[in-house]
Design brief:
eight-stranded mixed sheet, alpha+beta, 199 residues
Length: 199
């Protein structure tokens, strides 16, 4: 078993999690994107709308947005794409993650704490919720003493849904954030990283 095998929320509940649909995000100020990101989205969105492969979404939308988060945080975070994130293979907490943000500028090795970003399959945000929660459960163990709260999100590139895991309580925010505009998504991603700075 691996992260990608957690295809439903029911499978994640077997890890001992209680899953709630709620609105856990506070009021978060949007962040105006840089000229770089505005241009990347201007060029990338038509390609996505025309063909929309998962690889194109990952490279043309998700990666530029995460680079913008790093820029906004003065490049003091690590960004990882497609890296192995095996925490406990005996429980299926193994495999490659789509994206991780680490609160460390270290790029050679994943350091805690981390935030999980899962790319939804077939442009269906709900299809990625189980996998995201499984990766967040693993991240909670990986982060250890750094924080009992783990944040994550599932994205199609054009739609974003945010999650929080605190102890054994998993919260899925009921709001889906579309792109464009990207301002609110940037604000939330930066806010999630900054929550670790206050721990």
């Amino acid at each position: 078993m691996a992260y990608s095998d957690f295809t439903t929320i029911a499978k994640v509940k077997a890890l001992g999690l209680t899953v709630l649909e709620t609105q856990f995000l506070p009021e978060i100020d949007p962040i105006v994107p840089s000229d770089y990101l505005q241009e990347a989205l201007r060029l990338g969105l038509p390609v996505i709308l025309a063909r929309g492969s998962e690889k194109a979404r990952s490279e043309l939308l998700i990666a530029p947005i995460l680079l913008e988060v790093s820029r906004h945080l003065s490049h003091q975070v690590g960004l990882f794409s497609g890296e192995d994130f095996t925490v406990d293979a005996s429980r299926g907490l193994n495999g490659s993650c789509d994206f991780l943000i680490s609160l460390s500028p270290q790029q050679l090795e994943i350091e805690q704490p981390v935030i999980v970003i899962v790319e939804a399959k077939k442009v269906d945000l709900n299809s990625g919720l189980g996998q995201c929660l499984a990766e967040m459960f693993a991240a909670q163990e990986f982060n250890a003493a750094d924080s009992s709260v783990v944040y994550g999100c599932v994205t199609t590139g054009t739609g974003w849904k945010f999650l929080k895991l605190e102890g054994s309580i998993a919260s899925i925010d009921v709001t889906e954030y579309p792109i464009p505009p990207v301002d609110q998504v940037l604000g939330i991603l930066v806010w999630m990283v900054r929550q670790f700075e206050t721990v």
